[in-house]
Write a structure and sequence with these properties.
Helices cover 42% and strands 15% of the residues. By secondary structure, it is α+β, with helices and mostly antiparallel strands. It has two domains: 1-73, no CATH class; 75-139, Rossmann fold. The strands form two sheets. The chain has a two-stranded parallel sheet with strand order 1-2. It has a two-stranded antiparallel ribbon with strand order 3-4. The longest helix has 18 residues, at 88-105.
C-alpha cells in the first residue's frame, strides 16, 4: 500500500484529505474539522489519531488512507486494490467498511479487486477484465 512520510500521524494524514478545499489564504474551518472527525469515526480511528501511520497494523493503515479519502467528502470513491497484502480478517474489515459507506451514506465506491470471490460478495455491479478487455459484467 501507499507509504506515509515517517512520523506523520493518523490525524495529520486524514487532514490532508481537506487539502483540495484550502485556498492560498483560507483557514481551517469548522466544516474541515467536522469532516475529519467524521472520517475518523467512520473508520474507527479516533483513538488512534495521534499514532504515527507507520506504527499501525496493515488493516489500521488501510483504514487511515480510506479516512483521508472520506475527509475529501466526495460522492464517488476510487480505490485501487484496497485489500492487497492484508490477511483475510483485515480484508473483510476494509470491505465491510466500504460496503457500509455505500449502504448508509450512499457513496459510490469504484475499486479494483483481484479476489473474484470477495468482489462477488460485496459488489452491486461487477466488471471482470481479461486481456485488456471486458470479459463479463453484471449485477
Amino acid at each position: 500500500g501507499p507509504e506515509a512520510p515517517e512520523g506523520l500521524t493518523v490525524l495529520q494524514l486524514v487532514k490532508q484529505g481537506r487539502f483540495p478545499y484550502q485556498g492560498l489564504f483560507s483557514k481551517w474551518t469548522e466544516m474541515d474539522e467536522e469532516k475529519v472527525q467524521e472520517a475518523l469515526r467512520a473508520t474507527h480511528l479516533t483513538e488512534l489519531k495521534d499514532r504515527p501511520v507507520d506504527s499501525l497494523s496493515g488493516g489500521q493503515r488501510q483504514r487511515a488512507w480510506i479516512a483521508m479519502t472520506l475527509a475529501q467528502d466526495t460522492d464517488i470513491i476510487l480505490l485501487d486494490e484496497p485489500t492487497t497484502y492484508l490477511d483475510m480478517t483485515h480484508q473483510i474489515e476494509i470491505l465491510d467498511l466500504l460496503f457500509d459507506l455505500n449502504e448508509k451514506e450512499g457513496r459510490t465506491i469504484v475499486m479494483v479487486l483481484h479476489d473474484l470471490n470477495l468482489a462477488c460478495r460485496y459488489a452491486h455491479n461487477l466488471i471482470a477484465v481479461q486481456d485488456k478487455g471486458i470479459y463479463a459484467e453484471g449485477k
